[in-house]
């Protein structure tokens, strides 16, 4: 497998985590978004949406991190990233999509660049935009975790160690990169005890540690 990705990309980070949790080896190919590598023919000819990540596997090219991760989960059944039951899968997908569909699109690099270059907003305004939408999204995420915690307590079930249950799921693959990005913009994490507990649990695992940006070959401080 070949993973075209960028060390700072949250979506790429998600897939690196999933590949590590599955124990799947892959070749790392850097696509430097800040330098515009994704727009060059060498990559644009491979990627219809000209985004990262892109996974080349079995002669096919797969885009969109969530689709890639679910493909990996369906084709490699070890260390499942979605629960066996339909209700559990729906809850995990809801948590994951709260980040991938609600927080991340508003704070994507191309959106932030548009705010500065096209709409002429200064750095302080751009950063305020990021902090507002990220914090609002994380508060919604915390409420979802609290709702599940209350349900588990009411039904005598063991409290979750990660976002959902006792093993990492798709939701954790999304949460950890979002927290890494939020730290770069000094988003406050107070009042998010369940969210940060799940993050801390994930970061105790070597699979998450190995996937973090500082361990990527194209890392830049």
Give a count of the beta strands, DSSP E runs of length 2 or more.
Answer: 4
Share of β-strand residues: 5-15%
Indicate the multimeric state: single chain
**Helix percentage:** 40-55%
Distance linking N and C termini: 27 Å
CATH class of the largest domain: Mainly Alpha
Uncertain runs: none
Biggest sheet statistics: 4 strands, mixed
CATH topology of the largest domain: Glutathione S-transferase Yfyf (Class Pi), Chain A, domain 2
Which properties best describe this structure?
221 residues, alpha+beta, Glutaredoxin, Glutathione S-transferase Yfyf (Class Pi), Chain A, domain 2, four-stranded mixed sheet
Question: What would you say about this model in short?
Answer:
The protein is an alpha+beta fold.
Describe this structure in words.
- There is one protein chain.
- The chain is of the alpha+beta class.
- It has two domains: 78 residues, 3-Layer(aba) Sandwich (Glutaredoxin); 125 residues, Glutathione S-transferase Yfyf (Class Pi), Chain A, domain 2.
- The protein is built from nine helices and four strands, in the order βαβαββααααααα.
- It has a four-stranded mixed sheet with strand order 2-1-3-4, with helices on one face.
- The longest helix is centred in the middle third of the chain and has 32 residues.
- It starts with a strand and ends in a 10-residue tail after the last helix.
